[in-house]
Amino acid sequence: MEVPDLRDMVEDEVAHKDFEAQVVDKAIRYIRDSERWIQLLDLVVEETINASLKAELRRSWRQ
Question: What whole-number distance in Å separates Cα of residue 32 and Cα of residue 25?
């Protein structure tokens, strides 16, 4: 599984919205300093771990 790169994601969004390229660094600094970003990242990690554990349980039940 490929891990998304934050810079690539921000650059794509900036290009999509036709913003100036210098917005990328400012946006990344804002995201990294944002408490909400950390909360969302924690949620994604937790959901990923739970999904992985559920998939592992299903595989073990089939065996």
Answer: 11
C-alpha 1 chain-centroid distance: 13
Give the number of domains in the chain.
1
Range of the domain at 38: 6-62
Mean pLDDT, each 10-residue run in order, the chain (63 residues): 81 93 90 86 90 92 85
The CA distances from residue 60 to 1, 5, 13, 30, in Å, are: 21, 33, 41, 43
pTM of the complete model: 0.54
Residue 1 maps to a domain: no
